[in-house]
Amino acid sequence: MSTCLFLPLSCVRLINKNQAVAWRS
Questions:
Q1: What SS3 class is residue 1?
Q2: What is the spatial distance between Cα 25 and Cα 2, in angstroms, rounded to a whole number?
Q3: Is the pLDDT assigned to residue 2 strictly greater than 60?
Q4: Is the pLDDT of residue 5 over 80?
Q5: Half-sphere exposure (CA, 13 Å, Cβ side) for 17?
Q6: Using alpha carbons only, what angle is made at residue 3 by residues 7 and 19, rounded to the nearest 5 degrees?
Q7: Residue 7: DSSP 8-state
């Protein structure tokens, strides 16, 4: 989770990817 604090953009990308996978599932 520390990456979210240092790299919020990367964290958002990971969240978007997780949401996309959830929608496909």
A1: coil
A2: 28
A3: yes
A4: no
A5: 6
A6: 85
A7: -
